[in-house]
Amino acid sequence: MDTKEAIKAQFMKMYAQKDFQVITVKALCAATPVARTTFYSYFDNTDDVRCEVENDLIKGLLKVSQDVSSGNLPDMDFSRFMDEIEGYIKDNWAYIYAFLVRQPNLRFIRKWKDAIIMNFRKRYPQKQCIGNYDAIDEILASSVISAYTYWMEHPDTFDTKEIKPLLHKVLNSLVAEL
Predict the structure, then answer these.
(1) What's the CA gap between 55 and 51, in Å, rounded?
(2) DSSP string, 115-171
């Protein structure tokens, strides 16, 4: 792991345990350990670190969409997509949990919603002329993130095998009504 990645990993360890407002550059550098000059060669402040971690996670989610769809979202296998997203979330559980449950990060949630909306619009381009489309996008994105948040809050009782077909049905019924 290179220095920049080590700083981000240590930041997320701290973020999972402490409120963001109390994470200082000094404490982060001591915990990593790196010199403050090294930190500042990569980041301007702790919010800059948080923003980069957010962007890394969103890029990963978008890569899953790209890989599963091969660039053709309208014909994407939605079941495979849901399986791959589940795997990505499991692989990045600690970071996503920190941003959704432990210390909800509204900027990360907004970025994820925007990614969902972008994919929804690419998957169903013919639906964009419908009234209230922006509100429908927001409801859909919020619902998806709420479902993932619920899963992370209740991992022992939430059965992803049962919920994925339900999410697919909800999406299909929503799209059919448009």
Answers:
(1) 6
(2) HHHHHHHHH-GGGTTSTTHHHHHHHHHHHHHHHHHHHHH-TTT--HHHHHHHHHHHH
Preceding omega of 125 cis (within 30 degrees of 0):
no
Domains with residue ranges and CATH for the chain = 1-43 (1.10.10), 54-177 (1.10.357)
> Would you write out the chain's pLDDT as a tens digit for each of its 178 residues?
799 999 999 999 999 999 999 999 999 999 999 999 999 999 999 999 999 999 999 999 999 989 988 877 778 888 888 889 999 999 999 999 999 999 999 999 999 999 999 988 888 777 767 777 788 889 889 988 998 999 999 999 988 888 788 777 877 776 666 6
What 8-state DSSP symbol labels residue 18? Answer: S
Total-model pTM? 0.91
